[in-house]
Amino acid sequence: MSGDRTTLPPVRVDAELKERLRRYAASQERDVSWVIRKAIEEYLNRHEQKE
């Protein structure tokens, strides 16, 4: 990932998923935004390889 950072549009999730993200991030001593970035990156890496 490059050093240039930008924001994404807000994403709506249900309360349960939000709490799961919060708990996982806390268990990893990371911010929720870090977990979301890693999830997006992993998803794209997996799916771009199929193209």
Produce a short descriptive summary.
By secondary structure, the protein is mainly alpha-helical.
Distance between the termini: 20 Å
- The percentage of residues in β strands lies in under 5%
> What Rg do the Cα atoms give?
13 Å
Largest sheet: none
Coarse structural class:
mainly alpha
What's the SSE pattern? HH
Task: List the uncertain runs.
Answer: none
Write down how many β-strands occur, each being a DSSP E stretch of 2 or more residues: 0
Average pLDDT over all residues? 93
List keywords for this structure.
0% strand; mainly alpha; 51 residues; 59% helix; globular
Q: What is the secondary structure topology, with strand pairs?
A:
Elements: H1 15-27, H2 32-48
Describe this structure in words.
With 51 residues, the protein is mainly alpha-helical. The chain has helices at residues 15-27, 32-48. Helix 1 (15-27) crosses helix 2. The mean pLDDT is 93.
